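Reviewers asked in the last cycle whether our approach scales beyond single polypeptides. To address this, we selected a multi-component target totalling 557 residues and predicted its structure end to end. The input consisted of the following lines:
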Amino acid sequence: MVATDARRAVEAVWRIESARLIAGLARMVRDVGLAEELAQDALVTALEQWPEQGVPRNPGAWLMTAAKNRAVDRIRRERNYQRKLEQVGRDTAFDHEPDAGAKVGEIDDDLLRLVFTACHPVLSTEAQVALTLRMLGGLTTDEIARAFLVPEATVAQRIVRAKKTLAKAGVPFEVPAEDERDARLASVLGVIYLIFNEGYSATAGDDWMRPALCEDAVRLARVLAGLMPREPEVHGLVALLEIQASRTKARVGPDGEPVLLPAQNRARWDQLLIRRGLAALARAESLGGAGGPYALQAAIAACHARARVPEDTDWTRIAGLYEALSLVAPSPIVELNHAVAIGMAFGPEVGLELVDELLDEPALKGYHLLPSVRGDLLVKLGRHAEARVEFERAAGLTRNERERKLLLDRAASC
Amino acid sequence: MRFMVIVKATEDTEAGAQPSAEMLNEMAAFNEELVKAGVMLAGEGLHPSSKGARVYFSGDKRTVVDGPFTETKELIAGFWLIEVKSLEEAVEWVKRVPNPTGEESQIEIRQVFTEDDFVNASEELKDRERELRAEQEARASQG
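The resulting structure, written as structure tokens, was:
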């Protein structure tokens, strides 16, 4: 086999197997950092051997065996060799494919533990994101670095530090107990949503979107839904991400410029993803989760998805959903969106009144969408000179080049 | 990247033979794996071509021909749509599709066009897209 072919095959296997591999190893060594290193060691071994020997028939089991062998090597060198070896040996037989015996439920549990460990509150958000993409998404350090426009060394350092933090804090490899679970699940969902948003509306740089990052986030959300099928908010998040991802192609114009929702060619929305999103939303609602913050946001996205032309949008319903959202997840940004919806449903004067109430909101001080929304409403009211000032202010606040250009264009057209 | 994974027909599938319970179980388990990995977008099995039809095009002429069709190996018995990072990853998944009957069969993997592919492929289409978009925008701004 040609070496590059083998390398690509190893990467493909890695994408499919790494999360299960790391999760399975973490259960044995009770240390996700060590498990991740062992998995990486196994990957290196595969990269050395597969080009010559070919990809094995059961690559996942092969990697697991290689990783366990490395575990024994490494643990042997450590002082607590005996104790750890006992743990490894308990469910390991080194002479046959060890993973074959693992039951489906067991793997799910391991993966779930891995999710909750990677998103543990002892870690910074940045570390949670990096660990989640690395351990559950199967992304390389280099890929994560490219996605977030930071040097690879920074990501590598973040991951090393995160693993140390977990070990030092003695974070157990477990799904949190029931009393803690909702809060922890909220942070897991938050991490995935953050990854999606970074891809969907790149906060900095020349790209308006990084679709690959969105795809990773949607995939992670779907994985989580498979692991926690009874949690309505997980399906709510899946619904929200599927529907938002359905607009990916329509959000960019021929020259890479952003195209905002009302101007999007809805024929370019991905109907398959919309259908999947609506199904996930129905699932969330049938599990009693219609009032959860992600399900509510998904319901809003669904209102847009169902409208064949912008004029068909049910703004009254959207305004109601934002009102419900502001009760369960209050934030100035939700208030701003509520104001937009009210403006669409009941006229720009009413919308502007609500937006103006937010002008002194400290959290929105540097938020470009506040002047942008104001500009929008002012245009509708025919107050063009004021609108131009607002669009210019918004352009000065955004860090995204594409968005800045769009805002300056709007200012110029006032 | 989105791929269509095409399961080619066999004499059995064309004869409308029902899959065995064992095969159904293994397929269900495989599908579950695809779903749990978050890569499966859709997947369906197809009835034999005897229940289908073809429409032939020649200029303005349309000719409808009912199934069955004879070239079994070229026919499709089912498909998956999956979203993965590379052709290699798609291949890696397809290698895991169960073949419990041990019979000879084949699965074809084809990448689904994205708009970028089209836009690069044809200037004409690009223009058409721009027109469509302009129409849409004009309509939106009126609303």
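Chain A is about 70% helix and 0% strand. We regard this as preliminary and will revisit it once experimental data from Aim 1 are available.
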